[in-house]
Amino acid sequence: MSRSRILVADNHQNVREVMSNLLDMLGIEAIPCTGGEQVLQMVDCDNYDAVISDVVMPEMGGLDLVSRLREKKPKLPVIMMSSYASETLEEEARSRGAVGLVSKPFKLEAVTRLLEAAGVRFLRPA
Q1: How far is CA 7 from the centre of its chain?
Q2: Residue 72 burial (CB < 10 Å; 0-12/13-18/19+)?
Q3: What CATH code would you report for 5-117?
């Protein structure tokens, strides 16, 4: 069985690396992206199992990215991440089509719960 592939979008390299390492521990291939425009280009060229995107990024924010992805790839699950997570922000993300919102710093349990909700295959942590 092939590994799940997830695009990880954040304008901060360290956040992309932390999330990529966490996904790698779960047996998921993480493909780092520097922002929303790169994600849109990538989904035009290949298939992915999900997108994990920061809410606040220059040029195109994560909420706008979710809306654009709903038009391009309506079945592609999107998980949002934010340092400023709140119920209001999560409701907004879900209303645009996101699976949910994970807060930074990441907790493994929160990430795996959203991956399960998105239907992404992964290895269970020990």
Answers
A1: 7
A2: exposed
A3: 3.40.50.2300
